[in-house]
């Protein structure tokens, strides 16, 4: 029994999801003639109370399109120092849009309104890049699956409005935040100019993200997606997986959250664990005590058929997900208890 806790991106479609994909009605989405893609885009947009959506092959492309949409070369965006758009999108911020990042030292990947206000460059001081966009991530990846409070996001939105800035949400794991905090997705739609949501992490689809925004912004995003090479043909087979995931896999995220917290509870009793980030969702980040080696722990767990990942500096990550079943969870708990 191989147990992979490296990421929630490793899930495979269930038999039921595959059947749903197999039966999808498809067309050429480059011509906007794929009915299943249109249904997915419409349904996700309605879910968040936004005007329109656009299907993408990846969350990175959706985020990069949003950045291109809201900025001009030479400008600057504000984000947390752990932001996915900065760390894990191949330098696309500079390559695709020609903008720089002003990074904020937030709390577990989350920034606040006062920090944003302090980071904005004077628009009349032409020696500095013009600040034009704020990007936040919810839940935070490197922050250990932390979730924003809606009121904190509203306060940042006020700063954005007062300074003529656009506001983008990298909502790759927004579904986890919605379940953990029992939040209304339409409240997020009311705050942000654009939102990217991922279907291939906690929801278990094999591929796909959706970018949400106004009809005008999504119309412009269609051209940017084309430039980035993201136009796809009979992609309704993949969009169908997203529709199935929306209908069946949101509420079950609570199981992933429970299991992550139960693993954290066991790790908290171990003398070789120095610290554990607060666990709110399905990501668990912990640090080893001085004198212990992260690669050695990874190897010892591999010998027990359990895979986890290193984040460097003796810090490790465990991510629970759809394919991590209760029988596996019991085995992991028992194994860690014996270590």
Query: Quick one: biggest sheet?
Result: 7 strands, mixed
On the 0 to 100 scale, the average pLDDT is 97
Instruction: Give the SSE order as H and E letters.
Output: EHHEHEHHEHEHEHHEEHHHEEHEEEH
Total DSSP E strands: 13
- Counting DSSP H or I runs of 4 or more residues, the number of helices is 14
As a percent range, the share of helical residues equals 40-55%
Q: Give the strand content.
A: 15-25%
Task: Supply Rg.
Answer: 20 Å
Shape: globular
Strand order of the largest sheet: 2-8-7-6-5-3-4
The end-to-end span amounts to 19 Å
Low-pLDDT stretches: none
Question: Structural class of the secondary elements?
Answer: alpha/beta
Oligomer: single chain
Can you walk me through this structure?
The chain has helices spanning 15-22, 35-47, 59-70, 84-87, 92-97, 113-119, 150-162, 174-181, 185-191, 215-227, 236-248, 253-267, 294-303, 326-338; strands at residues 3-4, 52-56, 76-80, 100-104, 131-137, 166-171, 194-198, 209-213, 273-276, 283-288, 306-307, 309-312, 315-319. With 339 residues, the chain is α/β, with parallel strands linked by helices. It has a seven-stranded mixed beta sheet, sandwiched between helices. Strand 12 and strand 13 (315-319) form a beta hairpin. The longest helix is centred in the last third of the chain and has 15 residues, at 253-267. The two termini are 19 Å apart.
């Amino acid at each position: 029994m191989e147990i992979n806790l490296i990421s929630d991106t490793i899930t495979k479609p269930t038999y039921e999801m595959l059947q749903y994909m197999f039966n999808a009605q498809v067309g050429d989405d480059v011509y906007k003639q794929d009915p299943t893609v249109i249904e997915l885009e419409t349904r996700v947009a309605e879910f968040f109370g936004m005007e329109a959506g656009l299907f993408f092959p990846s969350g990175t492309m959706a985020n990069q399109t949003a950045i291109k949409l809201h900025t001009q070369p030479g400008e600057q965006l504000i984000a947390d120092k752990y932001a996915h758009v900065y760390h894990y999108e191949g330098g696309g911020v500079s390559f695709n849009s020609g903008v720089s990042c002003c990074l904020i030292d937030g709390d577990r990947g989350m920034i606040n309104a006062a920090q944003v206000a302090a980071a904005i460059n004077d628009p009349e001081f032409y020696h500095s890049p013009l600040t034009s966009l704020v990007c936040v991530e919810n839940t935070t990846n490197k922050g250990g699956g932390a979730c924003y409070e809606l009121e904190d996001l509203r306060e940042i939105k006020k700063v954005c409005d007062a300074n003529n800035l656009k506001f983008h949400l990298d909502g790759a794991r927004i579904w986890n935040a919605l379940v953990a905090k029992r939040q209304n997705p339409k409240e997020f739609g009311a705050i942000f100019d654009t939102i990217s949501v991922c279907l291939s992490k906690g929801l278990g689809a094999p591929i796909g993200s959706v970018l949400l925004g106004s009809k005008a912004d999504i119309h412009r995003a269609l051209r940017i997606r084309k430039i980035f090479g993201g136009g796809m043909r009979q992609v309704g087979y993949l969009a169908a997986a997203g529709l199935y995931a929306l209908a069946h896999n949101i509420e079950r995220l609570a199981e992933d959250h429970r299991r992550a917290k139960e693993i954290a509870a066991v790790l908290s009793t171990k003398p070789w664990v120095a610290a554990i980030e607060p666990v709110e969702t399905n990501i668990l980040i912990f640090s080893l005590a001085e004198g212990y080696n992260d690669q050695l722990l990874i190897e010892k767990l591999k010998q027990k058929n359990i895979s986890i990942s290193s984040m460097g500096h003796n810090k490790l990550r465990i991510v629970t997900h759809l394919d991590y079943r209760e029988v596996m969870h019991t085995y992991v708990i028992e194994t860690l208890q014996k270590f």
